[in-house]
Design brief:
About 15% of the residues lie in helices and about 45% in strands. The chain has 2 helices and 9 strands, in the order βαββββαββββ.
Length: about 120
């Protein structure tokens, strides 16, 4: 696992780390699963974020952030480099949020962007 020592192109806030660890425990996520971070075509601004637990696939890079395995398709690094994933738990917003410095525009839902 050489790639696990390379720093991830994305970062997780402490709130996101806490929520992910809670989800891993509550849903009894298997150790061979990791958090998939990626993008896909679609959404109001052209591209949408992918965030969910998945198994490693061919073409994935693997990273580790505070013991959480992160899987990312190598081709998605261009769109995700420098992105910060946070977890909001307030009255105005609840859920994971994406702060992407590469996005040239975003939409109101916060899960779609264009670059």
């Amino acid at each position: 696992m050489e790639s696990a020592t390379i720093s991830a192109p994305v970062s997780l806030t402490q709130g996101a780390i806490n929520e992910l660890k809670k989800l891993i425990d509550q849903q009894e996520i298997s150790p061979d699963f990791g958090l998939r971070v990626g993008v896909e075509g679609g959404g109001c601004s052209g591209m949408s974020y992918i965030l969910g637990f998945d198994q490693k696939k061919d073409g994935d890079s693997e990273y580790s952030i505070e013991g959480i395995r992160i899987f990312m398709n190598k081709a998605h690094g261009l769109y995700l480099a420098g992105m910060e994933i946070d977890f909001k738990n307030g009255l105005d917003a609840r859920g994971f949020t994406f702060n992407n410095p590469n996005a040239t525009s975003t939409c109101g839902c916060g899960s779609s962007f264009s670059a």
